[in-house]
Amino acid sequence: MSTQNLKTIVIAGGGTAGWMTAAALAKTLGRRYDIRLVESDEIGTIGVGEATIPMIQRFNAVLEIDENEFIRETQGTFKLGIEFVDWGAKGESYMHGFGRIGQDLGLLSFDKYWQKLSRQGRAAPLGAYTMSTSAAYAGRFMRPRPDMPNSPLKDITYAYQFDAGLYARYLRRYAERLGVQRIEGRITDVRLNGESGFVESVRLANEEHVPGDLFIDCSGFRGLLIEQTLEAGFEDWSHWLPCDRAVAVPSANAGAPSPFTRATARSAGWQWRIPLQHRTGNGHVYCSRYMSDDEACAVLLANLEGERLAEPRMLRFQAGVRRESWRRNVVAIGLSSGFMEPLESTSIHLIQTAIARLVEFLPDAGFDARDIAAYNRLARQEYEWIRDFLILHYKQNRRDDSPFWRDCAAMEIPASLRQRMDLYQAHGRILREGTELFTEVSWLQVMNGQGLVPQGHHPLVDQLSDAALFDYLEDVRKVIAQCVNVMPTQADYIARHCRAPAP
Amino acid sequence: MQLDSQIRKVVIVGGGTAGWMAANALVQFVPPGCSIRLVESEETGIVGVGEATIPTINAFNAALGLDEDEVLRRSQGTFKLGIEFRNWGQVGESYIHGFGVIGRPHGLLPFYQFWLKAWMRGEAAPLEDYSINTAACLQNRFARADAGMANSPLGEVAHAYHFDAALYADYLRERAVKLGVVRTEGKIVEVRQRAGDGFIESLRLEGGESVEGELFLDCSGFRGLLIEQTLKTGYEDWSHWLPCDRAVAVPCASAPALTPYTRATAHSAGWQWRIPLQHRIGNGHVYCSEYMSDDEAASILLANLDGEALAEPRPLRFVTGRRKKSWNKNVVALGLSSGFMEPLESTSIHMVQSQIMRLLAQFPDKRFAQADIDEFNRQADQEVERIRDFLILHYKLTQRMDAPFWRRCREMDIPDTLRAKMDLYQSSGRIYREASELFSHVSWLQVMHGQGLRPQAYHPMVDHLPDAVLRDFVGNVRNVIGSCVNAMPLHADFVRQHCAAPGSVSP
């Protein structure tokens, strides 16, 4: 019987992961648990400008957060997708837009028809048939119109870009209102039970002990509890995702913020651009084997659109995954559970799914090994799916201008990714694994955008005559273009609904 | 260029349920200019007995644009809300595996977690009272889901059908032929392969006619004329997990109440199905020949009919397992030629339709890209393994000690995937649905609970609700379902009103 419930949950670390966890647990578990969060003002958080994916709306819905308030408080903007510049080859670009593409017909998805017309050289780029992408390029935004079931306006799919520091502060206020107790202090020691090896308490610099039944490790890269104490182990993926450093700097906005994130490939990595209301977040992710820190910094500063607003900050990391993200009574959430570069804005998503999974597998005092094994298996699977999607961006390049990109094009890739690329190459078909995060259209946009070309189209497309095929695609394209024209600019939309006060 | 590589000739071998289902779907979706020919012989009988389906059949019928009432009229069909299992956990016990949903979720948790706590405390009624499907079964009532009542259990009724498989095949044959499928009557005496790669080129019929094709669908049944007898694809035997290897089938006269469910009654070395149609009841006894003789199996069957037997009992033999590849070269196996699992959860027709949909999704051109074929086979394997695990669960999870057959089932080794599911449920009442798995947590719950697996705990978050609120919540769900069921017509009346077959005597 479920009588031996846990009483005290201790969250170690108060960055984005820590406060997201605190807020969500406080909301979903109610006051039957003591939730405490230990953080030190001495320790900085990694959070830079953060971009998200549409799944974050589910998280906000569980928290019952008012979207306009949340955007105002975090200097947020809307995000319709990610533009990739110079990835497939220098001078090329494409958008990975959120939401659906075109309008399906019969048994087949829209892209199967587009593939055929495109091979005949008669189709516009994929983005012209994608509501989110078309709006993003036009700098326009509005929330979708579910009341218009026959219009692509119902298909607008969005996420947010916001200041992660402000987001953590916003969630902290939220969590404290619901009874989460914040304890200021640096953790200096972790005490284990002599028999079970479970964490009993953490000791702070001021000698105070914070005891708990369940510990959530949100301490970042180092993994204070999960790794430094419990030695859960780390699986290195840097042979597939070789970038290991980043340098970040904010800059002044040059014009109105665009409703998309940009990722521009550089000679040994890539640069992000995340436009917020009050400034733009920038960063350069690179591989130290191919580029020095000084050079990386110089490349970043030479490629800002507005005036630099602070000193560049350096970050170091290693791509990979914690072998067990739940061990004994410690669950790692956020960077302590693994790291993948923010190329597809998955960091916050991984935090939120870890929280949802923890709630689903919430233990009682028995900490059943079978529950923990299931949790770890699911966590691992999610990491691998995202990993494959990221590797695709590096593997599928036709750049010949630097050793970094040549080596990426030549690298061995996981069999799971190989299989997907082969299948697409045969007839433009895309496999989506069960509950995988990225949908068929995400895979499509990146594979197509980086120049992977199918050898044939889906045979059933030939049911339509060439003329009917052309008319069908043109119709979709025109309707989307008309819809974009009725949308407000993002600047107007924000001004009307959620303008943040000047910082 | 692609135009030259387009498939122009599809040949379907075998005209049972699988063959005619495939013919209908293909003629609807392949491009014009591609001919579809089905070769069948009236000499060869089909296996199809009374067939029961699961709700995914609705998607197939909808894709084809079939009218549900017409299908049922033509096939003496009735509606099905679930399957009743008798004597599986213990002799004398029974439970229903109903389609659809149970209760309604609260917060982040599915309903059954709340029910579990109430039930553990002796404060809840049996699980059947909390789902519109199962509650309606207990009263022999039926109505289609009412789309206008999205917030009521009446909007959640999930149904499938029982029908006469031979009549269903007749109906589909007539329709396919009307839409342009060419039916060829004849016995295949030779299969010709292309030199070099062994792809199948043509079939020679008795009388000398040659039937050429580019893509062949093997719907020839157990024997697998093309996939196995010609291509030697190989078969993976699963009879150590699902040991029944024979069946004997017989129709009988209808009984007074028309039940909206299939019944599966465990006997001492297998189980008996009961499928109520409009004009008769289909019955069959699936058994393990190691533990029971054919004569004994037939006499048990005949002793357990609800009405007078209407024909001689027909014996069937099979080996549970799967074809190692259901797509090999230019042959795709559909139906029994791709593998066999007993009809305990009515999955046979489902597997035919999902193979057809998968074939359309991966439809080849003349190059027969290996990546497409591999993906087809990977998905097919995944689906069939998860169904296999679900079937094994019924045998493994028994407390019966009254027969050597059941004792052996209790003790058998099971696949790790199934072990993990049972362990997880037992430790904490949690059920995890694997990616794209057919059966949902609702199905697993009903069988695991129905056969006596008891979790050590419910979800800790359930304790969030104060006891009185929990009682009210669970009680309220039951009351609402109870009153909804009372508003539904009797199944027999519903059938009579909407889809009575001409000439059938509705009970």
Oligomeric organization of the protein chains: heterodimer
CATH topology of the domain at 3-51 and 164-236 and 322-368 in chain B: FAD/NAD(P)-binding domain
Overall shape of chain B: globular
| Percentage of residues in strands of chain B | 15-25%
Task: Report the CATH topology name of the largest domain in chain A.
Answer: FAD/NAD(P)-binding domain
Instruction: Please count the helical segments of chain A.
Output: 14
Strand order in the sheet with the most strands of chain A? 6-5-15-16-17-14-18
Secondary structure tally: strands of chain B: 22
Distance between the termini of chain B: 61 Å
**Which CATH class of the largest domain in chain A applies here?**
Alpha Beta
If you had to describe this structure to a student in words, what would you say it looks like?
Chain A is an alpha+beta fold and 503 residues long. Chain A folds into three domains: 210 residues, FAD/NAD(P)-binding domain (3-Layer(bba) Sandwich); 141 residues, no CATH class; 72 residues, no CATH class. Chain A is built from 14 helices and 22 strands. Chain A has a seven-stranded mixed beta sheet with strand order 6-5-15-16-17-14-18. Chain A has a six-stranded mixed beta sheet with strand order 8-2-1-12-21-20. In chain A, strand 1, helix 1 and strand 2 form a beta-alpha-beta unit. Chain B has a domain of 169 residues: FAD/NAD(P)-binding domain (3-Layer(bba) Sandwich). In chain B, strand 5 and strand 6 form a beta hairpin. Chain B is globular, with a radius of gyration of 23 Å. Chain B starts with a helix and ends in an 8-residue tail after the last helix. The model of chain B has no long low-confidence stretch (mean pLDDT 93). At the A-B interface, helix 8, helix 9 and helix 11 of A face helix 10, helix 11 and helix 13 of B.
Based on the model shown, name its key terms.
heterodimer, A: 503 residues, alpha+beta, FAD/NAD(P)-binding domain, 3 domains, seven-stranded mixed sheet, six-stranded mixed sheet, 14 helices, 22 strands, 20% strand, globular, B: 507 residues, 16 helices, 36% helix
